[in-house]
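I have a small job for you when you get a moment. Would you make up a two-line entry for one protein for me to read? No commentary is needed, just the two lines. Write everything out right here, beneath this request.
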Amino acid sequence: MAAKPKKRPRPPRGLPARIVDAAVAMADETGWSAVRLRRVADHLGVPLSEVRRHFRDLDAVADAWFERANQAMLSPTGRTFADLPARQRLHALLLRWFDALAAHRRVTGAMIAAKLQPSHPHHWVPLIFNLSRTIHWLRDAAGLDAAGRRRQIEEIGLSALFLATLAVWARDGTADQERTRAFLDRALARADGAMARLFRNS
């Protein structure tokens, strides 16, 4: 009888991912504003310079945390995904983004609040660009290929919808984020109706 093939060992998680995990875990206990990268380095048993090699500051760690949500949103979909109405595709993709961070909702909200502090104007412009990139990837993943005026309206509308859903999600204590899911469903239905009326004769 042929021997069973040996399972390949899983590659160890890279240091950048472990830095993010450690920072988020500390924030769960002390709050995001109290996280210090030297303590993250001590916890991981690496020099602070090694943390600096991967992240310029704590805000960059937050960016890496949000990038996990982007990757979750863009993970492979089933074969029938493209056959769904655009509204359902957007609903599924946006929930992937929020579900990816749901276990640490309070910390995620604190990260965003830190970016918006008046004393951190250098974070404001990157935050706007990061939102724009997320919306561009969302449109691409959802198969929204419109150009011109319709594309501009979609981008503005989806940006506003994303931020409104984020505000609901940040305070959502319901099981399985039911409040967020219901809000997103209603918001997408309104947006779908508005776009249909606006481009009725296109």
